[in-house]
Structure formats: structure tokens, C-alpha cells
Design goal:
Blueprint: E1 8-11, H1 17-27, E2 31-36, E3 50-51, E4 54-55, H2 56-59, E5 66-70, H3 75-86, E6 90-93, H4 99-103, H5 107-113, E7 118-123, H6 138-144, H7 147-150, H8 165-188, E8 192-197, H9 198-203, H10 207-216, E9 233-237, E10 242-246, H11 250-260, H12 275-280, H13 282-293, H14 298-308, E11 312-314, H15 318-323, H16 325-329, E12 333-338, E13 342-347, H17 371-377, H18 382-391, E14 394-395
Parallel strand pairs: 1-2, 1-6, 2-5, 6-7, 7-8
Antiparallel strand pairs: 3-4, 5-14, 9-10, 10-11, 12-13
Helix pairs in contact: 1-8, 11-14
GO molecular function: transferase activity
Keywords: Transferase
Organism: Mycobacterium deserti
Length: 407
């Protein structure tokens, strides 16, 4: 049994932060009902590449869920949503502040149908503060959180982190916040409202940077692949690419210079004699190390580092990463069958529990795939369902694929 079996979520989120959160919860066992707008659905459904008309990027964070396409601006649609909420444990949304209140599906409205409900709001800047009404995506959060000024190479343009880090940070923050709220509810019986912003979630991850700033006023700058507090700790050029080296303690430093680089004289070099010296001479250190590492290919240096017990590794392309034998052996690439896309691959959940199931449960749904079945669970009669499909309150993108229904 999965740990969240029996926990029902109404998921009103779009794009990445909220869908990432609910994907994790779904694969821990929650019944995630993704509520989408008829006709268009989650905005990320428009993202290319598409296979047979279905977005492959959408399918990544929306697997293991059920899709109900229902028009919340329609009176009957909102009534049905409130009926679903009465049996739900969590409502999660990432609209701009104020939208859910206008729709009549905000936290106060939900408490009227279930007083102990959990409710999580994810937004760019949060529900309070002078920027609360600004629309905000990941790159805006990276910009205002300082990430664009601390990523990339010195004297380079502001650089975005390679992944949507603030989106994922907000999604991960929502996961642990929801689990904490549920633990509290099981003890106290009290519901909870959670206000999470992309900016706050990312800022909370600036651990070393905040320590340096609060400690001595140091503003984190662009450092390429260098570490802000340790050296050598970066990627170095090789004869055919790059190798990462993390010899950031005195013990590892001596192993590196004696057993890997074969430069034992550096132990007495005043530029490199200890960590403060190495940090003060980072350019010299990089130049001296790369004069050696560029003489051999990456694999040769990785072998030497492994034998010496010094942390290091290759700098791979994403394609090389997915094909790497270690990643494959860990089962991080999973094959699933989508009803429209067909055979497809996805990234597996990362935790290996000793005795809990945590895995991909099903492919992402097509838009409105479970509209009829979920509402039938509420007791809505088939005649009314057909009428609501006809008038546009409900939607199913592929009724021809449903057993017992025709297009």
C-alpha cells in the first residue's frame, strides 16, 4: 500500500510548480483529480513536442492523475466542484491571488463544505506583499530572487539556471508543507491554509549565499562552476571535454595533488598551501590544474580520481545522462504506455524506500478523460452528464475512446 492511499486531492494547478507537487503526492498514493478548463485545459498541454496531438512535456508532471474538465464559471459546474470538495482532503491551486475568490472556490468557500480541508495556494509572489498581484513565472522569480545575477560566468550576462528551479522549489515546498499539514490535521482535526510563492521557495534554498551575506555582507556573484567557499571544486577542461573535481578538504587536496595530478610540490606552494590561500588564487589554481587535465581525456581523469578516492566525474550532455549505465541501473528512466501517445518514457520517482511503494502509477490523462467516471462516483446521472457535455459545462477530448460513450 502507498502511504497516501485514500487521500484525495482536487488539483487546479497548471504549468509546473503545482503539477510537480501533485505528481509526487499521486505517486505516494493520493487520488489526484486534475480539474481543467473545457477545451483548453492546463496551459502546458500546448507545449511541443506533441505526439498524436498530445503534449509530451505536459505528460511528464501530470502522470498518475485523473482529469476532469469542468467549467467553474458555470453554476452547475461550480456546484459539482463543491460536491467533489466535500469529499476531498486537499485543494491546491496556482491562480493569481484573488481569482479563486471571484470563482467562489477560495479557502473560505471550501471550509463551508468541509471545515477541516487543507488548501494550498502557489503563486509567483505570494498572497500578501506589494507584488502579490503581479503575474509571475519561474524566470521572474529567478530574477527577483537574485539567481540570474549569481549564475553563469563572471562578467557574463544574467543567466537562468538550466532547469525551472523556482517552480520545482515551490512544488517541493508544497509537498512537505502539505504532508506537515496533514500530520497536524490527523492529530488536531484542524484544516490548514498554505501560502507558497515561487520567490520565497527559491530564496529559502540560498543557504550558503545567505550565510555569506549575513556574515560579512558578501553578495553572491557569478562564479561559473566554482564553489563560493571551497577549492578546488569546479569543472576543469580535459583533452575531450570537462571533468568535475571536488577536493574541498585538506585530506582530499593532498590525494588530488599526490595521486591524481602528480604535483606533490603544490603542498608547499604558498598559493595553494591551505583553503584560504587557494580561494585567494582561484585563477592560478584553475590555470595550473587545466594545464595538466587537458593532457588526457575525461574518462582517464575519472578513473584516476576514483582510484584515489577523490570526488569527481564527467560533465555530460542530457542525452548522455539518460543513457548513462548508472542512471539506467538505478531505474530512473521508465517506460509507460499512453492511450494516445503510445509507448513513452518518463523519469521515475527518485526515492528508494525499503518497504513503501513509490512509482509511476499511470500515464498522464487526456483532457477530460475521467470527467464522466469521477462525476458518476458523485451520483450524477448519465442523462445529466450527457446534457452537461452537450452544453459545454463538461468536456472530454476523446469520447470515442471511452467505453459506452460515442463521439
Amino acid at each position: 500500500m502507498r502511504p497516501l492511499t485514500g487521500f484525495r486531492i482536487l488539483d487546479l494547478t497548471r504549468f509546473l510548480s503545482g503539477p510537480y507537487c501533485t505528481m509526487v503526492l499521486a505517486e505516494l498514493g493520493a487520488d489526484v483529480i486534475k480539474i481543467e478548463q473545457p477545451g483548453s485545459g492546463d496551459d502546458s498541454r500546448r507545449m511541443a513536442p506533441k505526439v498524436n496531438g498530445e503534449s509530451y512535456p505536459f505528460a511528464m508532471p501530470n502522470r498518475s492523475k485523473r482529469s476532469v474538465a469542468i467549467d467553474l464559471k458555470h453554476d452547475r459546474g461550480r456546484e459539482l466542484f463543491l460536491q467533489l470538495a466535500a469529499g476531498a482532503d486537499l485543494v491546491i491551486e496556482n491562480f493569481r491571488p484573488g481569482v479563486t475568490r471571484r470563482l467562489g472556490i477560495d479557502y473560505d468557500s471550501m471550509r463551508k463544505v468541509r471545515d477541516d480541508i487543507l488548501y494550498c495556494s502557489i503563486s509567483g509572489f505570494g498572497q500578501t506583499g506589494p507584488y502579490r498581484d503581479r503575474p509571475g513565472f519561474d524566470i521572474m522569480a529567478q530574477g527577483i530572487g537574485g539567481f540570474l545575477r549569481m549564475t553563469g560566468h563572471p562578467d557574463g550576462k544574467p543567466t537562468k539556471v538550466g532547469i525551472a528551479i523556482n517552480d520545482i522549489a515551490a512544488g517541493a515546498t508544497a509537498v512537505y508543507s502539505i504532508l506537515a499539514a496533514e500530520m497536524n490535521r490527523r492529530q488536531s482535526g484542524a484544516g490548514q491554509y498554505m501560502d507558497i510563492s515561487l520567490v520565497d521557495a527559491g530564496l529559502a534554498w540560498t543557504v550558503w549565499e545567505s550565510g555569506a551575506y549575513f556574515g560579512n555582507g558578501e553578495t553572491p556573484a557569478q562564479t561559473g562552476t566554482r564553489h563560493r567557499r571551497s577549492a578546488p571544486y569546479q569543472a576543469y577542461r580535459t583533452a575531450d571535454g570537462y571533468v568535475t573535481i571536488g577536493a574541498n578538504t585538506d585530506r582530499l587536496w593532498l590525494r588530488l595533488i599526490n595521486d591524481v595530478l602528480k604535483r606533490p610540490d603544490w603542498a608547499d606552494d604558498p598559493r595553494f598551501v591551505d583553503l584560504p590561500a587557494r580561494m585567494a588564487h582561484l585563477d592560478d589554481l584553475e590555470r595550473e590544474i587545466e594545464a595538466i587535465t587537458t593532457t588526457l581525456p575525461t574518462d582517464a581523469w575519472v578513473d584516476r580520481l576514483d582510484v584515489a578516492g577523490v570526488p569527481g566525474g564527467p560533465v555530460l550532455t542530457y542525452e548522455e545522462t539518460l543513457a548513462d549505465p548508472h542512471v539506467q541501473e538505478r531505474g530512473m528512466v521508465v517506460d509507460i504506455e499512453h492511450p494516445i501517445i503510445g509507448p513513452m518514457k518518463t523519469i521515475a520517482p527518485p526515492t528508494r524506500f525499503s518497504d513503501l511503494e513509490f512509482s509511476v502509477r499511470s500515464p498522464a490523462p487526456w483532457l477530460g478523460q475521467h470527467t464522466a467516471s469521477v462525476l458518476a462516483e458523485l451520483g450524477v446521472e448519465s442523462d445529466e452528464l450527457e446534457r452537461l457535455f452537450t452544453d459545454g459545462t463538461l468536456y472530454d477530448a476523446h469520447p470515442e475512446l471511452q467505453e459506452g460513450r460515442t463521439a
